[in-house]
Specification:
about 775 residues; b-12 dependent (class ii) ribonucleotide reductase, Chain A, Domain 2; single chain; 25 strands; Anaerobic Ribonucleotide-triphosphate Reductase Large Chain; 27 helices
Length: about 775
């Protein structure tokens, strides 16, 4: 292979992971003086960052280095990208190390913080229930955006980084600074101006100077990536339009959501990162429950278009929060709505809060008693019960404890105003008979997340939350693959028959739970021993399962606990148009199409990737799972796995491994609505540990949506597509092809905050 940079790029990834090179060079490999980082260089960099931050022993570093080299245990996608760089060592940038955050929406600063977090690469969650957003100020003053100047007119030597403003009577002049905080401060300032008393309800005329903002294509120093502020100029008028609709009142939940999402759209277009969000609404909020309905429309020719006023709502998953046990009828209606729109997952908050107080509620009996009181008597009574049974605590800490049902974008982390870091074990890389290898992997992952507990955040609300409630998340991916290799085709056949409670099925479940419980014990012991040694408060919950779609591609693992889409499928991966890695993919033989975000003036999806209106590409990669050719495995139809079988496996993981929540997307058909609703109802009533799971209509041939991340194909189609890839291939050396297109900085800035395409799947699909 042609050399490029100091690292050896040969045999970096398994042959069973065809998407590994595109994903690695797009997402995790940074540019350095001698070229792009190899996998070994990424490992060296991020481990040195963990060693310094976490005061690790050499034995611990050696273990973690071996696990990364073998692709068995990896730190978070964020840390792979940013760990060990000078940028992440600055206090104001600590948040950029975290996949997962959630912020309570109680003031204008919270909106600014969420934009700031998103620009640093964090997935952002927000609880948008009335008891929080009612604390926001009244909208008093109409906002008139008189003028927004062109971007990049100031010479680079004269640009200012700080946003400044001048107020003269009702005239405001804003000069936006050329840095992350510059963008954020200008956005937050508009919100603040809408409620300032000094304007006495009169119109505020605003002129915005974007001359200092670096133009399209200029590099972003430190963090990496390329500037692309194509949506920034539009942000201010769209924010003003939203605020002006609320004159004389407070914002509604959906308006709050749209304000957050408009900032997210700007960031995504700016290519700072790919955004991911979670918005939690009250179960009684009917406007929020229907805000994504009919978001997409299809014309008589089959072309899809989207409502431009609500387009930004695609930026986040929406979840409905239930503070009491919902009735069977309520759950049934919610499941029906999810079948129709893919939105409105049910979150059972009392279970989340109980798990998030595991240091106090440390037995099943205590958890059940707390949940019963919370459901029957309410939050206040539950708080009094906590105080009376577990000694005095400050009112603020008690409120925090009762608010720990905030979720990150994919729903696998629980907390309040939190930051959480995730590591991941690639179970598909580990022999099911190798218990020591499994222990090593889970120990290495646990150490990598524990190190970040040493961060002390600059923002008070996040710093205080960590002092009360330090949390980490050790996840895994490839569980389905692991169990296929452990139990063989009979396990697949049992899945195909619905995971029934036969003698064979009970035996399989006992073996599954044995693995899951053993791994959980390794994680808890490792994290707690580390915290005790370093004088840190122990997290009361350490294990979770993220969907892991992106990082899983480095080894070809089925994402998280989920079955793969099929034994063979087309995997579509998002790139910026003309990205060097995408160009190398074409030379390697893969096809490229425009992404879902690229539409014509009528809102129809584009077809030509070189259309001037196209801004993002999808690279299409034929893929085959590692066990596809096991005897009999090819005859099992994964697409026919029932919703109840998926739910049963999800709950198996939730009960025996996960302390937080298990991120889940359960796919179901119309005839499964009622059985699935019944299963959800029983799980909540019995206290089985259910918190939240996304439900998504099964994509059958007659209900296919365009350009999804996965498209199942049969063996014949896979062989044909593979042959076509080889036919088109003009370079057999991916890295050599990449080096021909590589110029300047990377055009991406690391992985999305949730590090997964799977949890974004409900966001991007049109309604049927």
């Amino acid at each position: 292979m042609a050399a490029f940079g100091a690292g050896d790029h040969r045999a970096d990834f398994p042959a069973t992971a065809p998407a590994a090179n595109p994903v690695f060079y797009r997402t995790y490999s940074r540019k350095n003086a001698s070229g792009r980082e190899s996998w070994s260089e990424v490992t060296t960099r991020n481990l040195e960052g963990l060693r310094q931050l976490g005061q690790l022993t050499q034995e611990e570093v050696d273990l973690m280095a071996r696990m990364q080299a073998e692709k068995k245990a990896l730190p978070s996608g964020r840390w792979l990208w940013i760990g060990g760089t000078p940028w992440i060592n600055k206090e104001e940038n600590f948040s950029g190390a975290y996949n997962c955050t959630s912020t309570n929406l109680i003031d204008w600063e919270a909106f600014g913080l969420m934009m700031d977090l998103a620009m640093m690469g964090c997935g952002t969650g927000a609880i948008i229930e009335p008891h929080l957003i009612n604390k926001l100020p009244l909208i008093k003053n109409p906002i008139n955006i008189k003028k927004v100047t062109q971007i990049g007119t100031t010479p680079s030597t004269e640009r200012q980084e700080k946003t400044t403003y001048i107020i003269e009577d009702n005239e405001v002049f804003i000069k936006v600074g050329d840095c992350r905080r510059g963008w954020v401060d200008s956005y937050q300032l508009l919100l603040e101006l809408s409620s300032k008393d000094q304007f006495l309800g009169q119109e505020v005329n605003i002129e915005i100077d974007l001359g200092d903002i670096r133009p399209v294509g200029e590099s972003l120093k430190g963090f990496g990536g390329m500037a692309n502020p194509v949506k920034l100029k539009d942000l201010y008028s769209r924010v003003a339009r939203l605020l002006n609709k609320a004159i004389g009142r407070k914002l509604t939940s959906v308006e709050c959501c749209l304000l957050i999402d408009e900032a997210a759209v700007t960031i995504v277009a700016g290519n700072i990162r790919r955004s991911a969000g979670m918005r939690q609404f009250s179960s009684e909020d009917q406007e929020a429950a229907g805000c994504k309905e009919n978001l997409w429309q299809q014309d008589s020719e089959g072309n899809w278009s989207i409502d431009p006023e609500r387009d930004a709502l695609r930026m986040a998953n929406h979840t409905r929060v239930y503070h009491t046990r919902p009735s069977q009828e309520v759950i049934l209606e919610a499941v029906k709505k999810q079948f129709q729109s893919g939105e409105g997952a049910i979150q059972f908050a009392p279970e989340a809060i109980a798990r998030a107080n595991a240091d106090l509620l440390d037995t099943p009996e205590l958890r059940k008693e707390f949940i019963d009181i919370y459901c029957l008597q309410g939050k206040e009574a539950a708080g009094l019960w906590l105080k009376s049974n577990h000694g005095p605590m400050e009112a603020n800490e008690l409120e925090h404890r009762l608010s720990r049902y905030g979720l990150n974008p994919c729903g696998e982390i629980l907390g309040s105003d939190f930051h959480c870091n995730l590591a991941e074990i690639h179970l598909n890389q580990i022999d099911p008979t190798d218990e020591q290898g499994q222990e090593d992997a889970f120990k290495a992952a646990a150490l990598s997340v524990a190190c970040l507990l040493n961060h002390r955040f600059e923002v008070k609300r996040y710093r205080q939350s960590r002092e009360w409630d330090p949390i980490v998340g050790v996840s895994f991916t490839g569980l389905f693959d692991f169990f296929v290799h452990a139990f063989g085709t009979p396990w697949l056949k049992w899945w195909e028959s619905g995971r029934p409670e036969t003698d064979e099925g009970i035996d399989f479940k006992n073996k599954e739970s044995s693995y899951l419980n053993r791994w959980k014990k390794v994680v808890n012991k490792t994290v707690w021993d580390y915290c005790d040694r370093n004088g840190l408060r122990r997290p009361n919950r350490c294990t979770t399962v993220q969907p892991a779609g992106t990082k899983s591609l480095l080894t070809g693992a089925a994402p998280g606990w989920h079955p793969p889409k099929a034994q063979r499928f087309i995997r579509r991966i998002t790139f910026r148009k003309n990205d060097p890695v995408a160009m190398a993919c074409m030379d390697y033989g893969y096809t490229v199409v425009p992404s879902q975000s690229d539409k014509d003036e009528n809102g129809r999806l584009l077809n030509d990737p070189f259309d001037p209106r196209c801004t993002e590409w999808l690279v299409e990669i034929p893929t085959e799972v590692s066990w596809a050719n096991l005897p009999g495995a090819d005859q099992v139809d994964i697409n026919d796995f029932t919703a109840l079988a998926q739910f049963d496996f999800y709950m198996q993981v939730q009960r025996h491994y996960t302390d937080h929540n298990t991120s889940a997307t359960i796919e179901f058909r119309e005839n499964e609505i009622e059985p699935l609703a019944n299963a959800l109802h029983k799980a909540i009533q019995r206290g089985d540990g259910y918190i939240s799971a996304a439900l998504l209509a099964r994509f059958d041939a007659n209900a296919t949506f365009p350009r999804l991340p996965f498209e199942p194909i049969d063996a014949e189609s896979y062989e044909q597509l593979q042959a076509e890839v080889i036919n088109r291939r003009i370079s057999t050396d991916f890295f050599e092809a990449l080096s021909r297109y590589d110029e300047g900085e990377l055009t991406e800035a690391g992985p999305a905050g949730c590090d997964s395409d799977k949890c974004l799947l409900p966001l991007s699909k049109p309604n049927n």
